[in-house]
Amino acid sequence: MPDDALLELRGASAGYAGRPVLHDVDLALRPGEHVAVLGRSGAGKTTLLGLLYQRLAAEAALIPQAASLVRTLSVFHNVYMGRLDRHPALRNLRMLVWPAREVVDEVRDVLASLGMAERLFDRAGALSGGQQQRVSVARALYNGRPVVIGDEPVSALDRVQAAEVLGRLAATHETMVLAMHDVGLALAHAHRILMLDQGRIVLDAPACELSVASLLPFYA
């Protein structure tokens, strides 16, 4: 592994139920990089993110493709889950029944940065798709770890909201790896672009050297 690498994959392969998805992937991720993973549906983006998260779980917050909220619980409780592993079970149980004021304030502040403070104690299942996605992002922000790995974290938001959320993630996480479908947003918010095709990395280049026009042929 290079001395400055956060992690390195060499010839990595992965799949599901005996079906290969990733093939011979070589990748080094360095601290401070903001990486966008692009590619057509089924190219292996989710599988690659899962592999990275397995290696970096102690340092990373995860934003899964689906919001993955507990729909019967409040927005507060779903965001608080970002730190469940930091506290003993008794404290977590107490937060479920009788949240401490200082913790409520912490969560409210995170939600406020995403325009969601007024939904603090609303049931998560009552939110729109875009609102649920912002709660999922808030959970990762509240997690507080230096790396964020996100699978289409802004896909349910309009471009203005998406840009704001991406800016917030970039401001609060040293390192980002995000699978994205919007090429323009990826170029605007990433330092580095990885393009996947049929489970292989077919492009790995600085975002500043690329354009929407140069990436569109990979989707043809």
Would you write up a description of this structure?
- The strands form 2 sheets. Strands 4-5-6-3-7-8 form a 6-stranded mixed beta sheet, with helices on both faces.
- Helix 4 (about 100-110) crosses helix 5.
- It is built from 8 helices and 8 strands, in the order βββαβααααβαβαββα.
- It is α/β, with parallel strands linked by helices and about 220 residues long.
- It has helices at about 45-55, 75-80, 90-95, 100-110, 130-145, 160-170, 185-190, 210-215; strands at about 5-15, 20-30, 35-40, 60-65, 145-150, 175-180, 190-195, 200-205.
Which key terms come to mind for this protein?
alpha/beta, globular, 8 strands, 6-stranded mixed β-sheet, 220 residues, 24% strand
How are the elements arranged and paired?
Elements: E1 7-16, E2 19-29, E3 34-38, H1 45-56, E4 60-63, H2 75-80, H3 89-97, H4 101-112, H5 129-143, E5 147-151, H6 159-172, E6 175-179, H7 183-189, E7 192-197, E8 200-206, H8 212-215
Parallel strand pairs: 3-6, 3-7, 4-5, 5-6
Antiparallel strand pairs: 1-2, 7-8
Helix pairs in contact: 4-5
* Cα distance spanning the termini: 35 Å
Query: What is the percent of helical residues?
Result: 25-40%
Which consecutive residue ranges, at least 5 long each, have pLDDT under 50?
A: none
Number of E-type strands:
8
Spatial arrangement of strands, main beta sheet: 4-5-6-3-7-8
Question: Rg to the nearest angstrom?
Answer: 18 Å
The averaged pLDDT comes out at: 94
Largest sheet: 6 strands, mixed
Our count of helices gives: 8
Shape verdict: globular
Succession of helices and strands: EEEHEHHHHEHEHEEH
Q: What would you call the structural class?
A: alpha/beta
